[in-house]
């Protein structure tokens, strides 16, 4: 069988034989005559996935990105350090978990073997009170993964386990999407953990770290999102909690190769191009207005962050209908977060991990030692005997003195890694952002879906609601492909096959017990 140039590669799952395949609606393999034109607004993961799904089926695609670089929240840009060397700054560390099937499938377009990703050997957690957790020796196959974590974690004791409310914890055993939202979206993550008497030490050490990866305080985060995450990483998937990271900065490792692949399919990539509005065209289609130009499109994909989507819809008064526009206008963004990167004149201790999740150290949520895995950082560190360290602080609610917060974060680093106290900071860069989606208690039903009131307009991004067990970067990639599939289905073209972790608990008896307990 001859494979067309640019035809999608066969999807791949990981080690989990129970991962679920999501076939695309049937249709023709690709356009053989004049193809429609689609404008994709946004060059992050979601926009790149949508452009890929469309272009591989022969659609003419123009992608517009307001920033000068691709990658969205995983973008990187050049900076010159005070010592004269060139470096790459970004919005910070991201973990590429092995159950991110659709994101990894996107990256395989330009790197079939995923050679630019390398695994970190552990995902350690540390609390200021002295507790430590690690996932290095936790089994990967459920339920041994959850049982192993409990057995190996110092935050669980016999009394803690005996005190847990097993009946209240039963929803963890039968996670299904979207049913989990009907059951738990009106409860906060913190209240749910308290309801089941989850050990306080484990809440601080493990689940607070995870919930804050959604850029939210556990008291503000929907319990449905937390329970879904528990399913994705513990009881629903055998891929485990270890992850991969790019071995070079994001542009070099990921986006420049993928941009080359898209250009080979005829995609027009236009960066530094801000979209000012989208308007319905007489006779069908949509006009996209950007930088004084008007792009007539048969369809449009909006793959924007929360503030960007709200702003563009507000500036496009004829787009969608009233109720849809009101939902978009009401979308909440997560509180601001801070990424601080420090170039130090001496190395951290050799036993420091590449990534460390922290709790109890004020606003410090994690510490990364970039020269442990990233080539650019390792070369800089080797040249001067130094180290490159990155600090994250999520969910910084309320008014903040940015300079004071940055200094406090560095002081927290001194507590975690005392050897850095005497290090000279050769250079430092700080990124404050407030553009991540927020998943508040009771907010799920108000989130938009891929499809909109106008069949020629679709949405993509990690803010978009799906009926699938996906989160974070994987939600962005999955909705990007779902957006392309929705448009291709209109035109009778077969779309992209997708994968997810299983969409229910893995064992029938446990699912039955959970349903009985919830009756």
Give the helix/strand layout.
Elements: E1 20-22, E2 37-41, H1 45-55, E3 60-64, E4 76-80, E5 86-90, E6 96-97, H2 101-108, E7 117-119, E8 125-127, E9 132-133, H3 144-152, H4 158-163, H5 166-169, H6 179-184, H7 189-195, H8 200-212, H9 223-235, E10 243-246, H10 250-264, E11 268-270, E12 275-280, E13 286-290, E14 293-297, E15 299-302, H11 306-314, H12 322-329, E16 337-344, E17 355-359, E18 366-369, H13 375-384, E19 387-393, H14 402-416, E20 425-433, E21 457-459, H15 472-490, E22 498-500, H16 508-518
Parallel strand pairs: 2-3, 2-15, 3-11, 8-17, 15-21
Antiparallel strand pairs: 1-22, 4-5, 6-10, 7-10, 8-9, 12-13, 13-14, 16-19, 16-20, 17-18, 18-19
Helix pairs in contact: 1-15, 2-15, 7-9
Keywords for this entry:
alpha+beta; 19% strand; Polyamine Oxidase, Chain A, domain 2; Guanine Nucleotide Dissociation Inhibitor, domain 1; FAD/NAD(P)-binding domain; 7-stranded mixed sheet; 3 domains; 519 residues
């Amino acid at each position: 069988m001859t494979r067309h140039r640019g035809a999608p590669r066969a999807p791949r799952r990981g080690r989990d034989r129970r991962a679920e395949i999501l076939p695309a609606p049937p249709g023709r393999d690709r356009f053989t005559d004049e193809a429609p034109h689609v404008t994709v607004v946004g060059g992050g993961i979601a926009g790149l996935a949508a452009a890929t799904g469309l272009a591989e089926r022969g659609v003419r695609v123009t992608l517009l990105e307001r920033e000068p670089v691709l990658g969205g929240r995983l973008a990187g840009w050049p900076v010159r350090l005070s010592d004269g060397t060139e470096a790459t700054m970004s919005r910070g560390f991201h973990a590429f978990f092995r159950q991110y099937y659709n994101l990894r499938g996107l990256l395989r377009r330009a790197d079939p073997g995923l050679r630019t990703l390398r695994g970190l050997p552990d995902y350690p957690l540390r609390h200021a009170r002295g507790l430590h957790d690690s996932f290095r020796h936790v089994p990967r196959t459920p339920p041994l993964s959850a049982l192993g974590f409990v057995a190996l974690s110092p935050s669980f004791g016999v009394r803690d386990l005996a005190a847990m409310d097993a009946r209240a914890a039963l929803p963890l055993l039968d996670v299904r999407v979207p049913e989990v939202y009907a059951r738990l979206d009106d409860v906060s993550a913190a209240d749910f953990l308290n309801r089941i008497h989850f050990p306080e030490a484990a809440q601080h050490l493990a689940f607070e770290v995870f919930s804050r990866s959604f850029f939210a305080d556990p008291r503000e985060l929907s319990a449905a999102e937390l329970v879904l995450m528990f399913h994705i990483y513990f009881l629903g998937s055998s891929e485990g909690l270890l992850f991969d990271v790019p071995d070079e900065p994001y542009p070099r490792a990921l986006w420049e190769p993928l941009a080359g692949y898209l250009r080979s399919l005829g995609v027009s990539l236009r960066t530094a191009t801000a979209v000012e509005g989208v308007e319905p065209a007489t006779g069908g289609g949509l006009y996209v207005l950007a930088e004084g130009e008007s792009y007539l499109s048969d369809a449009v994909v909006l793959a924007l962050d929360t503030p960007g989507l709200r702003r563009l819809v507000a500036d496009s008064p004829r787009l969608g209908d009233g109720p849809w526009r009101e939902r978009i206008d009401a979308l909440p963004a997560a509180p601001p977060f801070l990424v601080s990167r420090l170039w130090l004149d001496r190395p951290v201790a050799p036993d420091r991990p590449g990534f460390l999740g922290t709790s109890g150290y004020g606003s410090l949520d994690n510490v990364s030692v970039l020269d442990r895995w990233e080539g650019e950082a390792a070369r800089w560190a080797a040249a001067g005997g130094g180290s490159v360290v990155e600090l994250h602080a999520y969910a910084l609610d309320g008014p903040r003195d940015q300079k004071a917060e940055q200094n406090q974060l560095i002081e927290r680093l001194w507590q975690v890694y005392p050897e850095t106290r005497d290090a000279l900071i050769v250079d430092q860069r700080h990124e404050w952002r407030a553009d991540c989606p927020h998943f508040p208690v009771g907010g799920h039903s108000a989130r938009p879906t891929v499809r909109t009131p106008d069949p020629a307009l679709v949405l993509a991004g990690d803010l978009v609601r799906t009926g699938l067990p996906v989160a974070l970067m994987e939600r962005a990639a999955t909705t990007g492909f779902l957006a392309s599939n929705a448009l291709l289905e209109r035109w009778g073209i077969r779309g992209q096959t997708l994968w997810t972790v299983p969409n229910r608990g893995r064992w029938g008896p446990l699912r039955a017990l959970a349903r009985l307990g919830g009756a």
